[in-house]
Design goal:
This protein is mainly β. The chain is built from one helix and nine strands.
């Protein structure tokens, strides 16, 4: 758990120290490519084949892999995605120098961590 918290802290600090000329944009098509987590004894990274796809646009709408359209709200690092019959909440961590990847950590509607040992899904920008 300490390793996950340390990694999270380092990611936040790294983002804070980046040049102001690099701007992150959620707008575009994103593919889930990895799952990161821990079982308490060891950390793991699992590649994801044929992962979830999220397409974010400027009108605050999002379309999932199935083509179902919903809405999203991004405030700071808090992301809420509402697709009919499915409301999800995440903490979004932007990383990589070119902002072509981000991680989503699932949380409760109060933005409390739901993974006891930490977990995250890594998305890569495809368009």
């Amino acid at each position: 758990m300490k390793k996950i918290l340390t990694l999270t802290f380092l990611l936040i600090i790294t983002n804070a120290c980046k040049s102001q000329s690099n701007e992150f944009s959620l707008i575009g098509k994103w593919l889930c490519v990895e799952e990161h987590g821990s079982n308490g004894a060891r950390e793991f990274v699992n590649p994801i084949n044929d992962g979830d796809i999220l397409v974010f646009n400027t009108e605050s709408t999002v379309t999932d892999k199935r083509g179902i359209k919903g809405v999203y709200k991004l405030k700071g690092d808090s992301l809420q995605i509402t697709i009919p019959d499915n409301e999800r909440f995440y903490i979004l961590y932007k990383f990589r120098e070119d902002f072509k990847k981000f991680s989503l950590t699932p949380v409760t509607s109060e933005y409390l961590n739901i993974c006891d040992e930490g977990c995250a899904f890594i998305y890569e920008k495809t368009e």
